[in-house]
Design brief:
By secondary structure, the protein is an alpha+beta fold. The protein has helices at about 1-5, 10-40, 45-65, 75-80, 95-125, and strands at about 5-10, 90-95, 130, 135-140, 145-155, 155-165, 170-175, 180-185, 190, 195-200, 200-205, 210-215, 225-230, 240-245. The protein has two domains: about 1-65 and about 90-125, no CATH class; about 130-245, Immunoglobulin-like (Sandwich). It has five helices and 14 strands.
Length: about 250
């Protein structure tokens, strides 16, 4: 409590803000790395760690002692005429400095971290979204079984989570670029983005693969039925695969 009643000079406050800015860079870099590795830009724990690291760094810098000045020698106290006492700098109360650092640096770190998360989600396509698929559906084409499990509508994308199983004896290929489509009954068609999608493309025999195909944009808001297609399957037993008549519910608004 005594520490918080001291007055803090401008130099120490400036150092606290500087160290908090450094902690912001370090914290956001770690949060971005963890979010990218986990493909989840919505985890609140990482955001809390960034703000906590920045705030603690600034507060410690504010309240830490200066080490004090050495005591006066006896001769200084007996000197005549007595030395004129130096005027103490007014500064800012430590408690006010602590609150300022938390509000300025902690709030700033939170804003920057949210901005980085927004950009990260947009660049990777891993934005949070709402599932608009009423029920998963499966279709078969030759030796390929294709299942659409979820359709997530995000701020900028439509993400289709699906799985494929190859019951044949040869590998088959399901490329995203130029060959994946999501279509509505009114003819609106979206094309898959291979850079944001996480789809293995090759399906070995006897193996099931799972992945996500990301489509920039959205189907019309009143869409009730949709279809997902690989317009070309590179296989000896099938030339395309479509999961048709997918039941779509309205995406939440707001």
């Amino acid at each position: 409590m005594v520490v918080l009643m001291r007055r803090i000079g401008g130099g120490r406050l400036a150092r606290a803000i500087l160290f908090s800015m450094i902690a912001t860079v370090v914290g956001i870099a770690l949060d971005a790395a963890i979010s990218f590795a986990g493909k989840d830009w919505t985890n609140p724990i990482g955001l809390g760690l960034v703000v906590g690291l920045v705030a603690i760094t600034g507060v410690i810098t504010v309240v830490q002692g200066d080490g004090g000045s050495p005591p006066s020698a006896p001769s200084d106290q007996l000197r005549w005429p007595p030395a004129t006492p130096q005027k103490r700098s007014r500064g800012m109360p430590a408690i006010a400095a602590v609150l300022l650092v938390i509000a300025l640096c902690g709030g700033g770190a939170a804003a920057v971290a949210l901005g980085v998360r927004y950009v990260g989600g947009y660049v990777t396509g891993d934005e949070p979204g709402s599932n608009v698929l009423r029920a998963q559906k499966t279709a078969t084409s030759g030796s390929l079984t294709l299942t659409v499990r979820r359709i997530l509508v995000t701020s900028h994308f439509t993400r289709v989570e699906l799985s494929a199983r190859n019951r044949g004896s040869e590998s088959l290929s399901l490329p995203v670029y130029g060959y994946s489509q999501l279509s509505a009954a009114d003819g609106t068609t979206l094309s898959g983005d291979p850079f944001r999608s996480r789809w293995p493309t090759t399906v070995p025999p006897g193996v099931r693969i799972d992945g996500v195909v990301v489509f920039p944009g959205h189907l019309p808001s009143d869409t009730k039925r949709a279809s997902f297609s690989f317009t070309q399957v590179f296989s000896l037993e099938a030339d395309h695969a479509t999961v048709a008549n997918l039941a779509i519910k309205p995406a939440p608004t707001g």
